[in-house]
Description:
Blueprint: H1 4-14, E1 17-22, E2 31-36, E3 39-45, H2 48-62, E4 74-75, E5 79-83, H3 92-107, E6 122-124, E7 127-129, H4 137-155, H5 164-172, H6 174-177, E8 184-187, E9 196-198, E10 204-206, E11 212-215, H7 217-225, H8 231-240, H9 247-266, H10 271-282
Antiparallel strand pairs: 1-2, 2-3, 3-5, 4-5, 6-7, 8-11, 9-10
Amino acid sequence: MLSAAVRTEVERHTGPIERLAPVGGGDIADAWRLDAERGRFFLKRGDGAAEAAGLAALGTAAAGTGLRVPGVVHVSSGLLLLPWIDRGRADRAYWSRFGEALAALHRKPPGHARRYGFDADNFIGATPQQNAWMDDWVAFFRQRRLEPQIARARRGRRWPSAWDAPASRLLDRLGDWLPATPQPSLVHGDLWSGNHLPGSDGTPWLIDPAVYVGHREVDLAMSELFGGFDRAFYEAYERAWPLEPGYPERREIYNLYHLLNHLNLFGAGYAASVERALRRLAG
């Protein structure tokens, strides 16, 4: 339920709330659907400012691509209010549109003279995500992505000492797999099956981003980690902008970041997946 203060804050933008219903499906934040005098809305509790900045950047970049991103109705330190999106059907045509549109988003120059990062830090789930700009993608992924997650796992006593050697080998050899200066793309950053949805007209919507400027393959890799994306999505993306050779190896490295994050957020159930990835990658 909403406190009286939160309800008053929200109703300044929605009008009187007629119906409030919790919304499931996410891993972190509390969320509700609001039916109110001025329409239907989605209300989420969390770090609204960081997500709002990501939605704004993604919305600007998505213009003309065939993707849509919800505009922010209201944001405060602990709340994010968005328009409600009526869900449609994820048929094969939807998946093809989605793959082609994501390639178009990735092809758009992100408009930053500096290379990889974002103008502010944000979150990947509930985990802080560092985005300070760097010119070298390998260094960025090592210093802003993998090393902070490893350090967090150590602090949380979720990192066995047996992982030290393979992790050290992997970090030392990262440049053997990752390109130093891939074409910069604005990426969603957390593209699992719960962070997109088909609108009622079949248009793909992107939600709940962890945006930054990086290598486009991080989005494709994350989409494969937990499944749920139709083959037509990948076929359409490949037709629009084929991936470079070596993607399967890079996919494992990019997804190690998300496995480590899940280990840190949700515990030992992800330890075996992290260990397998480290052993495969580091030899």
